[in-house]
Amino acid sequence: MDNAPVGFSKLSKEEKINWIANTYFSDPNEAISIIKKYWNSDSKIQKLHDEFIENTITNFYLPLGVAPNFLINGKYKTIPMVIEESSVVAAASKSAKYWATRGGFKTTILNTEKIGQVHFMYTGEELKLNDFFEQVQTKFYEETEGLTKNMQKRGGGILSIELRNKTHLIPNYYQLHATFETKDSMGANFINSCLEQFAKTLKEEASSYSNFSETEKNIEVVMSILSNYVPNCIVRAEVSCKVAELADKNIENPEFFANKFVQAVQIAEVEPFRAVTHNKGIMNGIDAVVLATGNDFRAVEAGIHAYASRNGSYSSLSHAKVEDGIFCFWIDIPLALGTVGGLTSLHPMVKLSLEMLEKPSAKELMEAVAVAGLAQNFAALRSLTTTGIQEGHMKMHLNNILNQFQVTNEERVLIKNHFKDTVVSHSAAVDFIEKLRK
Predict the structure, then answer these.
(1) Helices (H) and strands (E) in the chain, counts
(2) Given CA atoms 415, 419, 423, 424 in this order, what sign does their dihedral have?
(3) Separation of alpha carbons 372 and 68, rounded Å
(4) What are the pLDDT digits (tens) for 250-285?
(5) According to the model, what pLDDT value does residue 416 have?
(6) What pLDDT is attached to residue 2?
(7) How far apart are CA 322 and CA 383, in angstroms?
(8) How many Å apart are CA 240 and CA 218, to the nearest integer?
(9) In this predicted structure, what is the pLDDT of residue 219?
(10) CA nearest 277: which of 384, 387, 394, 398?
(11) Closest CA to 209 of 304, 139, 110, 276
(12) What DSSP string runs through 142-194?
């Protein structure tokens, strides 16, 4: 294949598409047709999408679904979810409906601190560095006042700055470890701007500090960056009811179900191979809402999985118990989310999703996201400990198989009727389609 032309990013959108089509596709015209088919018919919206990232050639669509009937802290919510996986929205909706008649979901914001760090190298006496930090600490706040002024008006800002010695990990390695409150903003740009000013102040003050030797004055800043690990930005979501109230058409023996459910969670707490899949199911719900609301699902994923490993072994994010005849199921999740800034005011579907959630604060969005994760986990564990997970999942997946084989409406009716009482598998569906077409 030919290398991309020098200055590819400077080519027009049409030129980029033509080069890609002619370089990689046996039928360039068909490739161009598909690419352009997914452009938005509104040129203003398309221009907006084009400018979100670099080298945009088209849009990649994912379904936006809704899960209604979520009773959260006594108020009903409809939760928007962007995801491509079959059965996720259905499972969340089913859990929402189930718990709405059993008291609903309760949420608590446990903390909202976010973290940023200046990583630097210092060669010299630790005692001198500690004295230096004590003397100049106020300057870090003073010299970021221009950055923090507006955030402070909203009740946010820099909460603390610590000097941390990490020389036991890497020789001469130290940190400025700062905590922030960013209110309804995710705050990445705010935090990073403050950190870069901290770094500048650190170097300038060190260079003129009289107690430092020339070597000690030469502090080397390696990098200044926020952390996506936010173990002090936590929301709890929970459900509970009397064990007897768990009964429904699929749960004839609620005591047996409750004990088996708790055992399933306990296995995920101690067995990392199970915990990863267990938590992946939780993330089906969490990522879907994070995406729908224009937040950074990669940052959320990284932070949550780090949190799941915080005790030295990867473990379940959710927990369950039966105590005094009460079934309790809960999750504590670190979530750094925003409802202002970023895509929240730019992307039309993000704005729509946030309005559907009744224009939540960052804390309210944390609650909705955590609830979606817990609901998804409950649905999965309920299936696993009763009928098995494949029955419902494969019935939802059947639509994808039928679309893959471009079945007609008449064929679709016959196939759906056949699999009402038959186990769905890809091979079984293909066999039946082939029989129909013979």
Answers:
(1) 16, 10
(2) positive
(3) 11
(4) 899 999 999 999 999 999 999 999 999 999 999 999
(5) 77
(6) 65
(7) 19
(8) 58
(9) 98
(10) 384
(11) 139
(12) HTTHHHHHHHHHTT-EEEEEEEEE-TTTSTTEEEEEEEEE-TTB--HHHHHHH
Q: Which amino acid is at 328?
A: C
State which amino acid sits at residue 351: K
pLDDT in tens, 59-90: 999 999 999 999 999 999 999 999 999 899 99
Cα distances (angstroms) measured from residue 80 to each of 337, 351, 356, 378: 15, 11, 7, 18
**Alpha helices (H) along 25-114:** 28-37, 43-50, 88-100
Tokens of 208: 């003129």
Phi, psi of 296 (to 5 degrees): -90, 95
- Coil/strand/helix, residue 401: helix
- What is the spatial distance between Cα 220 and Cα 120, in angstroms, rounded to a whole number? 6
Q: How confident is the model at residue 399 (pLDDT cuts 50, 70, 90)?
A: confident
Active site residues: 85, 280, 296, 393
The gap between the terminal CA atoms of the chain, to the nearest Å, is 42
| Contact indicator for 72, 371 with CB cutoff of 8 Å | yes
Q: Which residues contact 57 (CB under 8 A, 6 or more apart)?
A: 13, 16, 17, 20, 35
Quote the CA–CA distance of 24 and 91 in Å, as a whole number: 40
pTM of the prediction? 0.87
Structure tokens at 424: 């769905």
| Averaged pLDDT for residues 349-358 | 96
The alpha carbon torsion through 369, 372, 373, 374 (nearest 10 deg) reads 120
Tokens for 82? 């962007």
